[in-house]
Structure formats: structure tokens, C-alpha cells
Amino acid sequence: MGERYVFIIVGVGGTGSLLARDLPKLLINTDHKMLLVDGDRVERKNMKRQSYQEQDIGEYKSIALSAKINTFYDTHCEAIGLYLTKNEILEYCNNNYLYTPVLIGCVDNDATRKILEYTFENLERCYYLDSANGEYEGNIFIAYRYSHDGKIYGALRSKTYKLEDDVHPLDESCEVQASKGNVQFLVTNNKMANYLLEHCNALLMRQLKGGVQRVERFGSVFYSD
Fold first, then answer.
1. What is the total count of domains within the chain?
2. Where would I find the THIF-type NAD/FAD binding fold domain in this sequence (predicted)?
């Protein structure tokens, strides 16, 4: 039996929900599985650029989307309807030790990115893809480590610039949370999701490269390690 992966998508909003929508197609008839993590609930404003419909309003995004995936595909998809605090993914990976974690960050705050990097650094074997974007452009940092030497290959975002001490989603006011959702364009989110999907496909084909991908308005550049 070959290596089995669990693709853990943290943040299933603009980019993450579009990635989660298409990733199951790569996993059909395989032993790999998915985990979606997000404490947000679906709102009407999410209809325009995220993978949700009217009947999902009020549900946790991760749970609503995993239900669709399990209905339409043979890919096994689990969900956690919570914001990350620190050890949730570590505990999940310890309980699912037969799977190699592929950690995919699609979040919009550095407070959660710090938790994701902490998680990555405390897993013996892990792949980590961290996506970030604004209205027109973005980037993806790709790093990985193997259990036999513990060395980190590729690029971590915190090694390039200091992660900010911004507000964790659990600490945001209702007004701040309600104001989000209209900044990023659907086109940019689709582009980021497609590049992440391409890297997931490369991993399945044993061709994934560590490094940084800079995504611009009409193209991208990949800086390999």
C-alpha cells in the first residue's frame, strides 16, 4: 500500500471552499481523505464567491461543505466546526497516524497562521501549503519535512517576514466579522484555489516542490527551494 494522505484545509471561505469543491475529484478511487476546519457559519453574502448555497445559510461552513463532498464523491471528508486554538490538528493527526498530513492554510489572519506553523513544526512528517491573497494578487508558501531527519525543506512564511500579532477570529467583534467577505475578488480566489489544486496534484504524482509561488494578476512565478 502506498502513502496515504489526509488533506487538511483550514479555512473554507473564498479560496478554501473553492479548493475543497474540486480536490475530491483528484482523490476519487484512492485511499486519501480530507478534513475541513472552520468555525465560520455560512451567510447570505458568501453566495457570490464561495461554494455554498441558500440551504447552507446558518450551518458551519466546514460541516456543510463536507456533507456535499460525501454525498457526491467517494472521497471521505471529515469536518471540524471550530476555529483553531492550538492543538486540535495535532490531536487529530495523532489519532490518524496512518495518514501523512497535508496542511493547507487558507486563512486571512496571522494569528491562525502561527498556529498552523506551530502544528507543522510539531509533526514529524507533514506537507504545508500556506495561501494568502488580496484583491488582485497573492502567494503560496510550500514547506515539508520527513521523519527520518526532521529537517524542514521549502519555505515557511514566518522565515520571510514577521507574522503579525493580529486578532484571532475568536476574539473579533461581531461587527468586524460581519464586515469581511467583500474585499477579495472571486477571480483571485479561483486562481489561488487552482494553484493549490495543482500543488496537491503534484504531491500525488510525487512531483511537489518546496518554495514560494507569487501569484500576480495575469500570471505567476514559482521560486523553488
1. 1
2. 8-177
Angle between helices 16-27 and 186-204 (to 10 degrees): 30
Mean pLDDT (whole number) for 194-204? 97
Question: Cell 500500500 maps to which residue?
Answer: 1
Q: Which domain holds residue 58?
A: 5-224
Handedness of CA 196, 147, 157, 105 (dihedral sign): positive
Q: What are phi and psi of 16, to 5 degrees?
A: -65, -40
Decide: pTM greater than 0.90: yes
Tell me what pLDDT residue 53 has.
93
CATH code assigned at 125: 3.40.50.720
Cα–Cα distance for residue pair 193/183, rounded to 1 Å: 17
Q: Are 129 and 141 in contact (CB under 8 A)?
A: yes
| CA 208 remoteness from chain centre | 16
Helix (H) or strand (E) holding 104: strand 100-105
pLDDT digits (tens, 9 = 90+) for 99-155: 999 999 999 999 999 999 999 999 999 999 999 998 899 999 999 998 777 899 999
- Classify 52 as helix, strand or coil: coil
**Separation of alpha carbons 141 and 113, rounded Å:** 12
